[in-house]
Amino acid sequence: MKHLMFSVFILLMLSACDDKPEPKQTEVQQIPEVTLEQQFDNYQGLAWQVVEALQNQSTTQQLQDLTLKLITSSTGLFLNLKAQLPECEASLHALADATEFQQPQSNDTDALKNEIIINLEPNLPEFAAASCYHAQQLLLNPLAVYSLAQQADLAQSDYQNAKLKMIDSFARIKQLELITAIE
Question: Which residue of 13, 30, 58, 122 shows the fewest CB atoms closer than 10 Å?
């Protein structure tokens, strides 16, 4: 009888415990981290678009739009390079800051509302290593092309000079890829 009561007691205890559904774990959508290699590839892809526009002698507005896209998209690249190139942290931080543009304060004309204020000669610190120079050129080359694109009429030599600046950016990417792969 003792065993029977004990068994009933256990059954009652088990039945008293509701099968509470386990709280559903909310699926946290993690944004996949963009690797440095992907950022290099993204930069190169956008830089090639600028080169193609230069080869096709696109309008100055198209060149400005493409170089602006390249410049603004490089912020993440500069920030990611800080981990790989700690000796360039000050320079990379300044580069990332230089890629953040502001709308003008004046509301006098509709044209001003759509313009973006770009510092074509950002104040960058002295570089501590060659790798810092390579990284700086990833911003300075597109800024030079953007500056050229602000001219009303671009001569053939302007297109050629701008193309050389962008090709120089590809060399800088390759140098940085080699440096960051070694370290």
Answer: 30
